[in-house]
Fold:
Amino acid sequence: MVTTPAQLRAMRLAAQGVGVPGLGPTAAVERMTAVQGQDLGQVLWAVGVRSPGSTRADVRAAFDRGELVRSWPMRGTLHAMRPDDLRMLLTLTADRTIRSIARRAAELGIDDDLLAVARDATTAALSGGRALVRDDLLAVYRSAGIDPAGGRGYHVLLRLGLEGRIAWGPTARVGQGIVLLDEWAPATTDPPDRDEALRRVLTGYLRGRGPATEVDAASWTKLPLGDVRRARAAAGDAVEDLGDGLLALADRPPTGGVPTGHLLPGFDEYLIGYADRSAQLDPVHADRVVPGGNGVFLPMAVVRGRIVGTWTRTERTRDVRVTVTPFEPLDAAAVRALGAAADRHARFLDAPVSFSVA
Structure:
């Protein structure tokens, strides 16, 4: 079977659940296993675009109820996920990530004694269901004799997150509060054994992103290819080989019913969830989405599965302005499709949106 680029884009959009109604915020994240979320504002829309009909307030409420948290399950990068899925992912990835940051931690003077102080200070500050925004928790560390400057505070938080001690939980006026994970969102099940965890992660990855290759899955999880192949074997007939190295769930969604145009957030899984992104983004335009290769992925305008430009959102007192900057001139049908996407974004924001193409 030969999968054309157009078919691949259509199947990936359907798997991503972008613009497809039926799921609420928590269920939309659960089907993805985890959603990249360095920036809270961007990840709120990443969840919202996959749960049409939900509002920004609905997604924030899912965090406030403890149904969703943000932490560092893979690649030392913040993601949004269900608390139990975070625990499962950490059983597979935490040790590797801790080893990968060990040299930098040593350069920052983060040793076992400092971490012991940080654990005690964190537990004392957050016990009883308390939540502190990052700057307030870093002030606690400063009072305990830990200088958080120079990235030291961030690395301490990262390490405690990898240990499963803390997570970003309820939303605050600015950002999110940090909480004790097991107190804020107690485990509902025991973590599965390694083979079952690998199976769940691979099938979850493909459920929200397939078709994709083993290399794509390894890039997303930062697991060795051997572990991905072990997961493939554990998944059995649940995973289908489409040829050319592409894997997909045998039980995957149909490609019909997905809107033509989309306004996706920065760092969206539709692009960042793959090692090979050329089906969605022409490499000639890659620096328009990641300017200067600096690791910052801009919000993306998508038509028929192809990334055709970037977009900005300016929130004003009484309305919101959305402006699309295309890579090349857009035809009238593409402009209408992106205008419809702006209307969906307006419903998510619960605010009027004015739409234009630069």
Remarks:
- The first helix runs from residue 5 to 16.
- The CA atoms of residues 207 and 311 lie 27 Å apart.
- Residues 261-357 form one domain.
- The mean pLDDT is 96.
